[in-house]
Amino acid sequence: MTDKSSFKLTYSTMFNPPEELHTHFAEAMEAQKQKLGQEIPMFIAGEERFSTEKNKQVSPINTDLHLITYQRGSIQDAEDAIAAARKAFPGWSQMYWDERVYLLRKTADLIDQRLFEIGVAVTLEVGKNRMESLGDVAETAELIRYACDQMEANRGYRARMGKDPLVGFDSSNTSVLKPYGVWAVISPFNYPPALTGGPVGAALVAGNTVVIKPASNTVWSPSILVDCLRQAGIPDGVVNFVTGPGSTVGKTIVESKDIGGITFTGSYDVGMGIFHSFAQGDYVRPVILELGGKNPAIVSKHANLDDAAIGIVRSAFGLQGQKCSACSRVFVEAEVHDALVARMVELARTLKVGDPAERDTYMGPVINRAAYEDYQSFTAELKAAGKILTGGEVITEGEYARGYFCQPTIAVEVPLEHRLWKHEMFLPIVMVHAARDLSEAMNLANSTKYGLTAGFYGTEDEVGWFYDHIEAGVVYANRPQGATTGAWPGYQPFGGRKGSGSTGKNSGGLYYLPLYMQEQIRNQVRRF
Questions:
Q1: Which residue range is the domain that position 252 belongs to?
Q2: Average pLDDT over the chain, rounded to whole?
Q3: Can you tell me the distance from the alpha carbon of 473 to that of 507, in angstroms, rounded to the nearest whole number?
């Protein structure tokens, strides 16, 4: 991670970083500010491409801050990117798997070398605080390495099967996993490096070629990842990068019959639309979807309330609640409800909201005006239905006036039939309910279409009960580092069930990489 420390940055360790990370981040921030306003090209068939129409990307910290100019790609640009990836597929897919692993590990090393450069871009374009941003970049490299490790551990996913019991013949069978073809990666704004680089790394290691379309709010950091792939020596046409509206560029990619598979991370409604649209092809093709969550924390009357409070606050308000794993619902046994809420309110009031480039800032701005207006609408609903104990207002004074800053918000006494108990707000708002007992808490926790992450605080015996009954893909117990957040490749692979995911296999885990490949059984018969 750095040359001066054995510290390993993860979402669990980010709360106590060495001083050198702050020093290097500050230096990189000054360097990147000198480049603001630069034009970012698309990248198709090994060449930079510029379009007639351009879009400016501004910062949610200060909308007067022009970060980059990016290309407003067209339908033709998307089609050209797909064609380039299709043309490059035979050569890339037939390359020995260990050569692909070498190039992707080289890419991960380059991402590490550019950790602070990319981290600064994430802070400025997303509004993440500096440690969240650096964690995003570090996770990107680790996701790519994990995919490489899995390919290597499984020897290229080539395995001998049983021999047929034929008299007079030797009948051998081999299982081989092979790539699908052109793989599309449509990534979200909240983790632009990790949720671009992770799927792209897996698709490439598996032998697919890729077409990348980042979110229009966050083009900058994914473009640096593409530059790392180019610098590593990935052949022309294997990686293609197109930018522009989802209504044209995104739609062209999703509707193309030349796309062999797709990974999308984003909202439930958009993801389900992609799922249905992608099914209109000539045959069934793989769709890897991660579609958000309404993540609960359950707190027993036997819990360590200090651990519970800090874990919930970190997960509810990290990245301004704009994580699909953010804790948005808390069900706590009634006996300790007031004590837990008091601790949560106390902690929330200590969080600094402001410029995320500053080292003591915990919460930066939300991503754009639509999210800013949603926050005001949701808090108005909660004030009318229940009580807001802290937060509930946007911040508009002084330097905050040109950004999208919202207060961390804790709501109580909201009737359980209220729609916001089940609606993914994706904002710094957490709702708390006093449950009669753990059984009621569990029933409420599971009563949504989502099943991404969940947290629990209680005794060892209660933890076992929680694991057995919760409907979620990533579950945490007694974790002060974050009640529902903090997954890391090789440690806590990330993914969900029900309306939160389409495959039941978690990114950064043992079973993810094979999703990018299809099995071929090879039988050969020889006479004795």
A1: 19-291+505-522
A2: 96
A3: 11
Chain centroid, CA 188 distance in Å: 7
Whether residue 458 is found in the same domain as residue 509: no
- pLDDT at 5 exceeding the cut of 80: no
| Per-residue pLDDT reduced to its tens digit, 162-200 | 999 999 999 999 999 999 999 999 999 999 999 999 999
Question: Residues 6 or more apart from 133 whose CB is under 8 A from it?
Answer: 119, 120, 122, 123, 126, 356
The residue type of 342 is: A
Q: What angle do CA 515, 516, 520 make, to 5 degrees?
A: 90
Cβ atoms of 191 and 198 within 8 Å: the answer is: no
Q: Which tens digits make up the pLDDT trace of 70-105?
A: 999 999 999 999 999 999 999 999 999 999 999 999
Number of domains in the chain: 2
- Same domain for 66 and 153? yes
Give mean pLDDT, residues 474-481: 98
Residue 2 confidence (pLDDT) above 80:
no
Give the CATH number of the domain where residue 315 resides: 3.40.309.10
Residues 510 and 445 in one domain: no
Q: What stretch of H or E contains 445?
A: helix 438-445
With contact defined as beta carbons under 8 Å apart, do 89 and 235 qualify? Answer: no
The verdict on 321 and 280 lying in the same domain is no
| Best CA proximity match to 176, nearest among 162, 163, 161, 159 | 159
**Is residue 495 a part of any domain in this protein?**
no
Side chain identity, residue 70: Y
For residue 3, pLDDT over 80 is answered with no
pLDDT tens track for 415-469: 999 999 999 999 999 999 999 999 999 999 999 999 999 999 999 999 999 999 9
What's the pLDDT tens digit per position in 24-61? 999 999 999 999 999 999 999 999 999 999 999 999 99
Q: Contact, 8 vs 27, CB < 8 A?
A: no
Pick from 350, 411, 359: nearest CA to 386: 411
Q: Are residues 283 and 299 in the same domain?
A: no
Count of CA atoms in the C-beta half-sphere (13 A) of 483: 36
Q: What DSSP element (H or E) covers 98?
A: helix 97-113
Residues 280 and 320 in one domain: no
What is the phi/psi pair of residue 247, to 5°?
-70, -20
Tokens standing for 292? 């958000």
387 forms beta bridges with 412
Q: Active-site positions?
A: 290
Q: In angstroms, what CA-CA distances link 424 with 131, 187, 195, 246, 293?
A: 25, 18, 19, 21, 7
Query: Which H or E run includes 251?
Result: helix 251-255
Percentage of residues in the chain having pLDDT higher than 70: 99
Structural domain contains residue 2: no
Question: What pLDDT shows up at residue 4?
Answer: 44
CA-nearest of 296, 312, 316 to 475 is: 296
